[in-house]
Amino acid sequence: MRPNFMAVGGYDGMHLIYEGLKKTNGAGGQALVDAMKGMSWTSPRGPVSIDPQTRDIIQNIYVRKVERKDGELYNVEFATIPNVKDPVKAAKSN
User: Fold this and answer.
1) Total domains in the fold of the chain
2) Contact 39, 16 (CB under 8 A)
3) Taking the CA atoms of the chain, what radius of gyration do you get in angstroms?
4) DSSP state string for 26-38
5) One digit per residue, pLDDT tens: the chain, 94 residues?
6) What are phi and psi of 4, to 5 degrees?
7) What's the whole-model pTM score?
8) Cβ contact 49:64 at 8 Å
9) Which residues contact 55 (CB under 8 A, 6 or more apart)?
10) Nearest 5°: phi and psi at 32?
């Protein structure tokens, strides 16, 4: 079974909290938020990081098409747009 976007979001969120708590020795609060800013890791969705200005995720966008393989439908990537920030949040932070 392949993970859906909700499962990947849960994985990324828990990874971020876990690594942030390790960096702060469990301090929590503002120390945790500050430790998460700029953090990066390899997610099931590919390379991701936290934008220090907006505290939003920066990720690759994968352009896909649906193809049938062995009788099942699969999303097949044919292009990648790297390091995409949320354009609305990025514009507001400038």
Assistant:
1) 1
2) yes
3) 16
4) T--HHHHHHHHTT
5) 677 889 999 999 999 999 999 999 988 799 999 999 999 999 999 999 999 988 999 999 999 999 999 999 999 999 999 999 988 887 876 6
6) -95, 180
7) 0.78
8) no
9) 33, 36, 37
10) -65, -45
**Tokens (6 digits) for 38:** 């700029």
From CA 43, how far away is CA 37, in angstroms rounded? Answer: 16
What whole-number distance in Å separates Cα of residue 33 and Cα of residue 20?
8
Q: Which two tokens stand for residue 25?
A: 């020795």
Token code pair at residue 70: 């062995």
Report the 10 Å Cβ neighbour count for 58.
18
d(CA 80, CA 26): 36
Provide the residue range defining the domain that includes 87.
5-93
CA gap 31, 12 in Å, rounded:
19
